[in-house]
Amino acid sequence: MTASLEVRLAEDSETPATPVFAAPIRHPSAWTVADFRSPADYSIDLDAAQLRDIAAAMRRIKAAGIGLDGLQREHFEVLSLRPVVEEILRQIKDGRGFVLLRGLPVEDYSKDELGLIFWAIGTHLGRGLSQSVMGDRLGHVKDFSREDPGARAYRNKQELSPHTVRATWLASCACATRRRAAVCHG
Fold first, then answer.
1. ∠ at Cα 30 (184, 40), nearest 5°?
2. How many Cβ atoms are within 10 Å of 49's Cβ, its own excluded?
3. 10, 142, 175, 176: most buried by Cβ count inside 10 Å?
4. How large is the angle between the packed helices 48-63 and 111-122, nearest 10 degrees?
């Protein structure tokens, strides 16, 4: 896999805003769409045992009255998910840089429960932080510009500007319906 970088110059300078590499980047994370034959090339499908274990963990979390702000890694110890989490981490750190996790029956859970599951899996991938001035941990992608003309980022219909993300940051999105509604944190 090879990728090339476009060099942009800072507006008031001849200094490149992006590092210039003299050679192509040869790493699994430097991919193009043509590198994938189908979604199966970048997807992990949850199996029946993993889904049962997620449901059981959610019952325990709800019975304990734990909400999103109190949810910690130890509240979502799902042994059957360890290989999934390990593969996600491997792909993020040393592989293509992303994974599509499929198979969670979203119709079986409320929006809040889906957020808990999403956050709970994330507790095994790193430490979640708010990326919003509003302090929210999960941002529900929806156009709020009619209700809030000052809405920014994932809360309006404007295209987001590209930005630099530290290599240690992980951004993730969950599609909760077939209409492609997404819940994001990163």
1. 65
2. 12
3. 176
4. 110
Taking the CB of residue 111, how many other CB atoms lie within 10 A of it? 14
pTM > 0.85: no
Residue 36 pLDDT greater than 90, yes or no:
yes
Taking alpha carbons only, the member of 113, 109, 91 closest to residue 101 is 91
User: Which token pair is 177?
Assistant: 């319906």
Token couple for 87: 């593969």
CA distance 186 to 44: 20
Structure tokens at 99: 């994974």
**CB 104 within 8 Å of CB 117:** yes
pLDDT at 7 over 80: no
Give residue for tokens 């769409």. Answer: 33
Q: Is 29 exposed, middle or buried (0-12, 13-18, 19+ CB in 10 A)?
A: middle
User: pLDDT tens, 84-120?
Assistant: 999 999 998 899 988 999 999 988 999 889 989 999 9
